[in-house]
Design a protein that fits this description.
It contains 3 helices and 3 strands; from the N terminus they run E-H-E-E-H-H. With 110 residues, the chain is of the alpha/beta class.
Length: 110
């Protein structure tokens, strides 16, 4: 009886975000997928990425087949940036709160 090979990866840096840490974990996942591992990755939502950070959506092709679970971030600087965005009328994804129809409703994006 063969035991299924499963892996849960918890990482802050994952495609489409670029950078050294993202490349390492992407390649790690890519090659384990080729060896028939079932992989789940828990990482941050793309809206929590620094807008100045390099991104490459094509890097997600390397990890097709793994299940990516995106979540919020408790990183203090992220919470601070989102509070500043809210104060300036922007949602974490960069859209305006007016576009979302929630302007002036006291909603915090934390």
């Amino acid at each position: 009886m063969t035991i299924p090979k499963k892996l849960l990866v918890l990482t802050y840096n994952f495609p489409p975000w670029g950078g050294g840490a993202s490349i390492r974990i992407r390649k790690f996942v890519k090659y384990l997928l080729r060896l028939d591992w079932e992989i789940h990755v828990v990482t941050i939502r793309e809206s929590y990425l620094d807008p100045a950070a390099p991104t490459d959506p094509d890097t997600l092709k390397d990890v097709e087949g793994c299940r990516i679970h995106r979540t919020g971030s408790l990183e203090p600087s992220t919470r601070y940036k989102n509070a500043i965005r809210q104060a300036s009328g922007l949602a974490p994804d960069g859209s305006t709160m007016q576009e979302k129809g929630i302007a002036g409703k006291g909603i915090a994006f934390l």
